[in-house]
Write a structure and sequence with these properties.
10 strands; 28% helix; 5 helices; OB fold (Dihydrolipoamide Acetyltransferase, E2P); five-stranded mixed β-sheet; 204 residues
């Protein structure tokens, strides 16, 4: 005589599974305050990621110039103009990097030599007859250069950190270096640097 198979009550099993699932949800579901904190943390993280993405995609408008064969640039927002230096009057009693003063379109400006300011080694023959005029609300001076290359746009993501020994520029004045060795200098830092301000009185 064949043994009869026991009938399985599938509906009862489904009901039990549903009861177990509800019990798990009650025991492990976060409170309303916990949900709020989770959502807030997610929103902060998404905003941070979006900001980083925007910074990577940001373009910087720069003015590129040459000094002793090396490529440098300033952000255009700090540049008043670039022009040919015609007359330079030396000033006694000033630091070696201050070459003198010049009259540029009616403005009397100090002119500095970045090679001396950064203690860069002299490299070959240079013309040093162009000047880039930097300006903010409280300071204005000219930076002597060999050649003005022109205005261009640079992706912020293209800038890399660099050791000062690679470029010779002290780290606090360096915005970054591109893969093709264009050095973006921090014009704002230069304009706010007290070392640039000449307070020493000139003796008669």
């Amino acid at each position: 005589m064949k043994k009869m198979r026991e009938k399985v009550d599938w509906e009862a099993i489904k009901r039990q599974l549903g009861t177990d699932r509800q019990s798990l949800e009650r025991n492990f579901a976060p409170s309303a305050e916990a949900c709020r904190q989770i959502l807030q943390a997610r929103a902060v993280q998404l905003a941070r990621e979006a900001r980083k993405e925007n910074e990577r995609d940001q373009e910087i408008e720069i003015l590129e110039f040459l000094i002793a064969g090396e490529r440098y640039a300033f952000e255009v927002v700090w540049v008043r103009e670039a022009t040919v230096l015609k007359d330079l009057t030396p000033l006694p009693g000033t630091p070696p990097f201050v070459l003198g003063i010049a009259n540029v379109r009616g403005h009397i400006l100090s002119v500095i030599d970045l090679r001396r300011f950064f203690d860069l080694p002299a490299k070959g023959l240079t013309q040093l007859n162009k000047v880039v005029i930097l300006r903010n609300e409280s300071m204005e001076f000219g930076v002597l250069t060999d050649e003005i290359v022109g205005v261009a746009k640079l992706a912020a993501s293209a800038l890399q950190d660099s050791l000062p020994t690679l470029t010779g520029v002290r780290a606090e004045y360096l915005r970054g270096v591109t893969a093709d060795r264009l050095v973006l200098l921090d014009a704002q830092k230069l304009l706010n640097d007290e070392n640039i301000i000449v307070n020493e009185e000139i003796s008669a």
